User: Fold this.
Amino acid sequence: MNEIRFARLRPDAALPTRRHADDAGLDLYAVEEAVIEPGTFAVVGTGVCFDLEKGWVGLILLKSRSNYLLGAGVVDAGYQGEIRIKIANPTNAALRIEKNQAIAQLLILPIVTPAVTEVPANTIYAARSDRGASGGIHLPL
Assistant:
C-alpha cells in the first residue's frame, strides 16, 4: 500500500501526520476538548475517517509518554466511520484533552487470514516447548 486516503468529517479536524518521515505511526488528533475524570473513560472523536485496502489493518496505539490508557483499537478494512479513541484515565486527577492534541497513533499493517480449524487440545500440546511452558494452559500430556 503506497497511499492511505483520509477524509475530514468536520472542517476543523486535523489530518493524521507523521512527526518524522520514517515514523511507523501516524499521529491522530482530538477534534474536540474533553475532561476525563479519575477512574473513568471517554470516547474522543478525531473528525476523520480513512479507506483501508483489503489485506490491511489499522491499529490504534498509545503515544509514548501518555498518562492515560487506550481501549483496544483495531480498524478493519471496510470500516468507513469516524475514528474515535477510547481514553481511560487511571490517575487521581482529571485529565484534560485539548482540541488538536495528538492522542493516539495509527499503525497500518498487512494481515494474514488463515482458516480456523478445530483440533483436539492434546494435538496442540503434544510436545513440550523449548521454554518448557505450556502457554499458560495446563493440560495433561
